[in-house]
Write a structure and sequence with these properties.
9 helices, 3 domains, Butyryl-CoA Dehydrogenase, subunit A, domain 2, four-stranded mixed sheet, 317 residues, alpha+beta, Butyryl-CoA Dehydrogenase, subunit A, domain 3
């Protein structure tokens, strides 16, 4: 299996970081194509996607990188899916049902425009319908900078087609792998920023970073983020559903813990609107709840282990 060498990875990171900071959702896919993204994916898709979403987390970009990748995964597992499809992530407030002869559709997207066909979740199953049946409205809430939109409507049952169970499983696993990498990117950034801050902030005649209370907070946050990063890398390499589940769970926990520890290191400035920290905290809350928050996934992992009495091997673990 071919792998991206370190020099190529370094150049890729520079280009992706610049692209993410531009933040132009409409031109994002086109700009990726200009970078030769398809060729990069052919060489080492696992590493390229992991790096892309780690940088997305680090830069707090709002570009719609997740949607096109999930559609690509669906295309590989279900022949009925094509490039004219868009995908809706499950809405945390949605209550899917089938009132009468219609199917209730509700989901979230960061895409500027929907394709002619939309993939949406009904429970754990993926289905499709024409986007002309649906209404789009801005979604405001915890993280307005994510530029998310609520898509909803009631679609005639006859107009809805179900995707294969294989496609549903593959899309959920891919979503968890991707979001795990994005959460790791956020965790790394907030810890690194706090380390820099504590080295510069002086109290009692010395940088506050020399005090063990803060060192212990940052060290514990760093260790959990590093572990989550290693597991996210393993999930990207293996591509299976179980590793994706565990990686998403640990990444959500690590990112939330990092924000909790870092906020205490910042003190009062960490609670201000002017400081960047609250934006990362808000994004963590949003990402953690996509495809299952870490507490829910922790219970799911425990239930599976109890039911099977087998601990699947993950890499060297």
């Amino acid at each position: 299996m071919m792998k991206l060498d370190q020099d190529t990875l370094d150049m890729l990171r520079i280009s992706l970081r610049a692209l993410m900071r531009e933040g132009h959702n409409e031109s994002f896919v086109g700009r990726l194509e200009e970078l030769g993204w398809e060729e990069v994916l052919k060489v080492d898709a696992a590493t390229a996607l992991r790096v892309l979403f780690e940088i997305k987390g680090e830069t707090l970009s709002s570009v719609d990188a997740l949607g096109p990748e999930l559609v690509r995964v669906a295309c590989l597992t279900d022949p009925s899916v094509g490039p004219n499809h868009s995908i809706l992530l499950p809405s945390p407030l949605s209550n899917p049902g089938t009132p009468g002869d219609t199917v209730k559709v509700e989901g979230v997207t960061s895409a500027t425009n929907l394709g002619s066909q939309v993939i949406f979740f009904t429970g754990e199953q993926l289905s499709t319908c024409a986007s002309s049946h649906l209404t789009i409205s801005p979604l405001q809430g915890t993280d307005d900078s994510a530029n998310r939109r609520l898509v909803y409507g009631e679609v005639p049952i006859a107009s809805v087609a179900r995707l294969s169970a294989e496609a549903s499983t593959a899309v959920v696993a891919a979503g968890r792998r991707i979001i795990a990498s994005e959460l790791v990117g956020i965790g790394r950034h907030v810890v690194a920023s706090a380390v820099e801050y504590t080295a510069q902030r002086v109290q009692y005649g010395k940088p506050i970073g020399v005090f063990q209370a803060l060192q212990h907070r940052l060290a514990s946050a760093h260790c959990l983020v590093v572990g989550a990063g290693n597991l996210a890398t393993e999930a990207a390499e293996q591509g299976d559903e179980w590793t994706a589940l565990v990686a998403k769970c640990l990444a959500g926990r690590a990112a939330e813990n990092a924000c909790t520890q870092v906020q205490q290191c910042y003190g009062a400035i960490g609670f201000t609107w002017e400081h960047e920290f609250h934006r990362y905290l808000r994004r963590v809350y949003i990402l953690d709840r996509e495809f299952g928050d870490w507490r829910t996934l922790e219970h799911e992992i425990g239930d599976r282990l109890q039911a099977t009495r087998v601990v699947p091997r993950i890499g060297a673990l």
